[in-house]
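Explain my protein.
***
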Amino acid sequence: MLQPSAASTATATTTSTTTDGESTPRYGLANLALCALGICVCYLYYGILQERLFTGRQRLGASFVLTTQCVTNAIVAWVWAQVEHSDKQDERTKSKASTPPKDPNTTTQSQSLHHWLLFVTSGFYVGAMACSNEAIQYVSYPVAVLAKSCKLIPTMLVGQLMESKLYSTAEWSAALLISTGIVLFHLTRHVGTIGSAEKDQSTYGMFLLLASLGMDGVLSSCQNFLKFPRNKTAHRSPTAVETMLYINLYAVVYLWPMCVHNGQWSDGVLRLQSEDSLVTAILILNATVALGQIFIFLCLTWFSPLYTTTITTTRKFLTVVISVLLFGHSFTMTQWFSVVLVFSGLYLIIAVQRTKSLHGKQKED
């Protein structure tokens, strides 16, 4: 399941920003530990529930589950926005007495959110999620997790095409490590162990994962366009809660008609009415992912995408291990070596970004 990558559009309003775009945290280790614990616990548990709902006896349609999740996330974001708005109103009331009156001749230009870009971003967000969740029916969950772990590659490729970004040799080396690990894992997973029909299914599953990764790449560029608007006089960057609210709200606009068209909506509602255990499972699933999104948005706002990427990357490795233990997926030594390659590449990317961040701070000093 795609984590809320749309979260990276959040504006770190409580952090200072360096010249290269990284933010310097003003919060302590206790808050960082809280975010890390919240993200890991929520998404580890979410991964277990998701594999059971999409592959086991309780299997539900992917678009139906995603629709219910986005509705839940939008409701949670709306409540969060109301609380945040109430707090800001209180702060304004308290500061009115100490604030000097504004010059009546001064004019201010209001900026609006770029809703069309938010809508397009949400479309790629939905497409990436739908493809990855559909792929779980044709490939094992560890394969899906590892494949989604290499989203840095399409992000770099699309970023170079759409945003004219340049990447270092170390960054491309990391991408090569990730690609090699993914290919090696997939080849050794299936050589001599499956028949032609299963190979066809596996090929289709990998095609879905590739499509999901491609949409992740475009999504990342859309997120950067949201975070750093080209027309700054007309549009402003969305805050964390605004991103969570509108990305999920627009996602429902995409998902619900799809759900109705493919019959998953009526089938899902009927099954929920007849199976109480499914109602409990999907409520827990949605609550878990909504809580996980909150921790991700808080981590982005309090710290930076660098910290968030480190936490979620570690979480992905733990997800693979737990899935192997709980669902009987067996790994050979070669496959474990490929896992090491993938995550070594990911951490190399993170180390490079950390180095860039430190250089940015030195330039400021």
